[in-house]
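Thread: Newbie trying to understand structure tokens

Hi all, I'm a second-year student working on a class project, and my supervisor (Dr. K.) asked me to get a predicted structure for one chain before our next meeting. I've only ever worked with sequences, so writing a 3D structure as a token string is new to me. If someone could post the tokens and maybe explain what I'm looking at, I'd be very grateful. Here's the chain:
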Amino acid sequence: MTIAHLSDLASREAAPRLVIKVGSSLLVDGNGVRRKWLEGLVAEIAEARARGQDAIIVSSGAIALGAARLGLDKGGRGSLADAQAAAAVGQIALSGLWAELLGSHGLSAAQILLTLEDLEDRRRYLNVTATLTRLLDAGAVPVINENDSVATHEIRFGDNDRLAARVAQAAQASAVLLLSDVDGLFNKDPAKPGASLIREVRQMTPEIHAMATGGSASGMGSGGMTSKLQAAEIAELAGIALAIVNGTHQRPITRALESGTGTLFHPRRKAGARKAWLGGRLHLKGTLTVDAGAAAALGRGSSLLAKGVTAVEGSFKRGDPVAIADAGGKVLAHGLSEYDAGECDALKGRHSNEHEDILGYAPRSAVVHRDQLVLK
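---
Reply by user tm_fold:
Sure, no problem. This is what the structure looks like when written as tokens:
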């Protein structure tokens, strides 16, 4: 059974494993934790567990809670140091809150703090998968957040929307449910007259991306509709449905699923596990720009040959992930390079029969082999 409608997210058969993302502005307001609202959400999660659905929570709120306790301005986001300090204090409060409320329904909470590298490095990614699988098999409810106490500006998710999609990949989830402060994706800014809700998206396109607005209206979070669409792309590649619904109401999941109010992004394809991991990567080591002929060949399922490479950017080694882009800068694919950056630069535009003379050793069959490449 596949997920065809929002209501299917309440079905054990269609959605046996859910990832639910909760943003800072839903958890915390000017008066502190929105406890009554959170109690209603936890009750919904308990009901899903009673139906036989696994639940994973990706919860923001640590920085907001910590900033309030430390008296930091700008919600703890005035500087990286403030955010790290606020997260260190707030994470204790946040995990304790989830443990208390889930415990009131007889459920055990399990805290996991992740950095970008935990899901970008293949071995660490598989370790996350193993841990999540064991926790779910044991009946626990994993509560996940980015490890903001050690994350830096350069290497971090920066928003929990994309983190939720990557966690769903690792956990082999059926669907991701992003609780937002709006009903879903609108064709234009929902504050403007004539804006209409897009209830279904069957394929991510430039036109869909153009509907998004970045930024967080509350000032507490770090995401916006742009990050949610990026999360939808990650989920789409992994064969995972993703929904954006309004989380501001009491018992928001029940309200959204029963009324069908929200935006459901259908998975368009399901790549193999390794290719889904590769396609969902956020941190790439470089870019290979290709000509029109190479771009067309990639679309037909071919490997990337050096003859089609026109430019090389970045510092990367053999086996590192790189973007493959066309002359206009559009990313066509992600792949693992068979050469380091210097070798790629030396080989670009050259025929394969020249490679051995250039390198001084027998060349590999491609710059990026089709088995280590996934189209975007």
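A couple of things are worth pointing out once you decode it. The radius of gyration is 22 Å. The chain has two domains: 6-276, 284-375. Feel free to ask follow-ups in this thread.
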